[in-house]
Amino acid sequence: MDDGALARRADAVGDNDLVETPFVSDIAVQADGEDLGVTVLEEEPPHEALAEARAETPDEAAAPFSSLVPAIIGGALVMQTLNATVINNALPSMARTLQENPVNLNTAITVYLLASAVFLPISGWAADKFGAKRMFLLAIVAYAAACAACGIAQNLPELLLARFAEGAAGAMLGPVGRLVLLRSTPKHNLVRAMSVLTMPALLGPVLGPPIGGFIVTYASWRWCFFFNIPIAALGLFLVTRFIDDVKEEEPAPLDWPGLFLTGIGMAGIVYGFENLGRGAFPAWAVGGMLGGGILCMLVYAWHASRTPHAILDLSLLKIRTFSASVVGGAFMRMGMGASPFLLALLLQVAFGLSALQAGLMTFASAAAALVMKTAAPPILQRFGFKAVLSVNAVVVALTFMGYALFTPATPHWMIYAVLLAGGFFRSLQFTSLNGMAFADIDRVRMSRASTMSTMGQQLSQSIGVGMAATLLHLSMSHAGAKHLTAALITPSFLVIGAVAMISTLFFITLPKGAGAELHGPSRARA
Predict the structure, then answer these.
(1) Helix axes 156-184 and 190-197, enclosed angle (nearest 10)
(2) pLDDT at 187 over 50
(3) Distance CA 104, CA 389 (A)
């Protein structure tokens, strides 16, 4: 990036003080909670997106920064970040109450992720069409109602329907909340406001496992969902009382055919893959799901090439750094989706630990990931994206495989140590992936790239959970077992580690200077 580009960037922002934090990595790589154990649907915008913030008057420019509005919006997002990590530890207890095989409860995770991915593109359009504040309030109410429905579910179909509604509402919470902040915060305060907003993305995955474990151990798994209702009530009051309505923009046309094709296509692929070898559906039905899903995605690719406002901009995949992050990173994210699900079953069902004990163990992984948040930028600046992603992908894959060594006799301190190492290196990998995704994206397509990247994260994690369930079903069928044991669960970790290793093929072929622009003009010129 030359000096002229830097000047143009400063002019686009309109506030010289913000040029001190100009590079995408300074903001984007610190914002996503994926590396802490959950994909969060709000992302701190790249520097160019700061232009969306409203212009301030001279009085507002001189006013001191207030964290009230971003704290209120971030507090509402606590529901989403906590819920995403709490449910893993609750699955065995939920299976007993609903009289289901614990393996079948994986669908409670995949249906949420899939609904989030499908409805994510609608969020920005709905906010522009009906008003950002109004849609944010609606998303809070819908999310709380869906949580209540999950809590009172009496069987698996009822739970899945409620989780689908919860995922759809969750897809609105993050992006619309960010839009409210962008349009209600003066530009010169936006970076600090975003730092406050993203705190739930960092704290939710850390607090979720022990909180969920405590609730399940000493109360009922249903309170993991009811827990969100008072948070929602407080959020409704605070948003109504302290956040002003923002000006509505004229929305671009929504690509309804594209939304239909991608939704059906992703659902067919995920649930067709998930039911391979399970025996729940006849082979022709599973083949129909997979074939129908692939066909819908192929038709969408044809549709997108002829539609100016296609819901997913597939031309972004021609950009090497973006495709490596989304497509190559998908293999790593499959392990991210599968490992919490498998660990919950291993520690509770196979090892007989309580939900609280299991939650405290998985807490170690998220805590280590939080520590790596501060270490990742200097590591990336020293070694570069290509080297870090290529080498660290192997390390992360080996940590997934290391979980296969756990037995009931393994000392707890050793399990903690392995989980700490896994969380530490996984955080570096996903921080690198999330930063590099936007390295070569131009200003005009930044928003579309953000949507596509987040949808890819959701889809790959849901496939990972489905893959884990399929592996467990195949393992039980091969052994003729009706109940899970450690010997049946641990081989799955070897498989997901091998799948994660595939991502290295996308990273080692990157050019040597991939993503160098994120470290500043001097590094890019070098």
Answers:
(1) 160
(2) yes
(3) 34
